[in-house]
Amino acid sequence: MTSQLVALCFDANDPLRLARFWTGVLGWEMADDPHDGIVLLPSDDTGFRIRCLPAREKKAGPNQMHFDLTSTSLEDQRQTVAKSLGLGARHIDIGQRPEEGHVVLADPEGNEFCVIGPDNDFLADCGFVGALACDGSQEVGYFWSEALGWPLVWDRDQETAIRSPHGGPKITWGGPPVAPKTGKNRLHFDVAPPAHGDRQAEVDRLVSLGATRIGIGRREAGQVVMADPDGNEFCVLTPDRPPDR
Predict the structure, then answer these.
(1) Does the model's pTM come out above 0.90?
(2) Mean pLDDT calculated for residue range 107-132
(3) What angle do the packed helices 138-148 and 199-209 form, to 10 degrees?
(4) What is the per-residue pLDDT across 21-72, written as a single tens digit (0 to 9) for each?
(5) Which of 5, 130, 196, 205 could cross-link to 70 by cystine, CB 3.0-4.6 Å?
(6) How far apart are CA 150 and CA 147, in angstroms?
(7) Distance (Å, rounded) from C-alpha 190 to C-alpha 49?
(8) Is residue 115 within 8 Å of residue 81, measured between CB atoms?
(9) Peptide bond into 177 cis (omega under 30)
(10) Residue 227 clears pLDDT 90, i.e. is over it
(11) Taking the C-alpha atoms of 119, 122, 128 and 133 in order, what is their torsion angle to the nearest 10 degrees?
(12) Which residues sit opposite 187 in a β-bridge?
């Protein structure tokens, strides 16, 4: 048994505004979340939802993960940047160099994302959502490969990447140096056992892989809050809440 990646969750001071932004950028459908916040349903091969969850805390410091959006041409890249800016994004400087060929933006709540140029070979076979790029160790890449049952598609110089056997975006971890964690992450994964699976058995399996149970962050009925080997929070849901496909 392996976990299914149900959603990438954003803590949001204004969930509706953030959901409208990402709906506009990605072209996904927006729906009410029956549990909390707003959910975005993918219209492509991404395979997991985005959930925008209400939070009082303001963003402080860079996020541990961000989207890399792909481009088919320089004009396509310019159009994605222009659309994002029109929806409320802004340019930010995180030390990127012009020769790197990507544009770094922040959404209306300051969450970073990159619009990658058309000559990026690593994301050449991916869709518009090319990758979810994470700050993390090689160990955490191995953990999520085992947790989700997604094979490693990159494992070099302590950098790792995994991808679903069904396609969709890659999830990457940049290796050392890993920024020290301060407080609760603003983005986290929701995972669940397969339909008719046993949540407690899956929690026990995740612990055996290096996860820990923790008592911080959002609590909903039917979820267990855990942390991966790098200390990043994630939630294990009940198996009767699979992702919409």
Answers:
(1) yes
(2) 96
(3) 150
(4) 999 999 999 998 877 789 999 999 999 999 999 999 999 889 999 999 999 9
(5) 130
(6) 8
(7) 9
(8) yes
(9) yes
(10) yes
(11) -120
(12) 10
131 pairs with which residues across the strands?
68, 170
> Residue 48, exposed/middle/buried by CB under 10 A (0-12, 13-18, 19+)?
buried
The Cβ of residue 113 has, within 10 Å, a number of other Cβ atoms equal to: 23
Cα angle value 112/223/40 (rounded, 5°)? 40
Of residues 93 and 199, the one with the higher pLDDT is 199
Residue ranges of alpha helices (H) inside 138-183 are 138-148
**Element containing residue 187 per DSSP (H, E):** strand 187-192
The CA distance from 220 to 218, in Å, is: 7
Task: Give Cα 184 distance to the centre of its chain.
Answer: 15
Contact 131, 170 (CB under 8 A): yes
Q: Give the distance, in angstroms, between the CA of residue 201 and the centroid of all CA atoms in the same chain.
A: 25
- The two three-digit tokens of residue 113, written as one number: 């994302």
Q: Taking a C-beta distance cutoff of 8 angstroms, is the pair 227, 181 a contact?
A: no
Higher confidence at residue 108 or residue 96?
A: 108
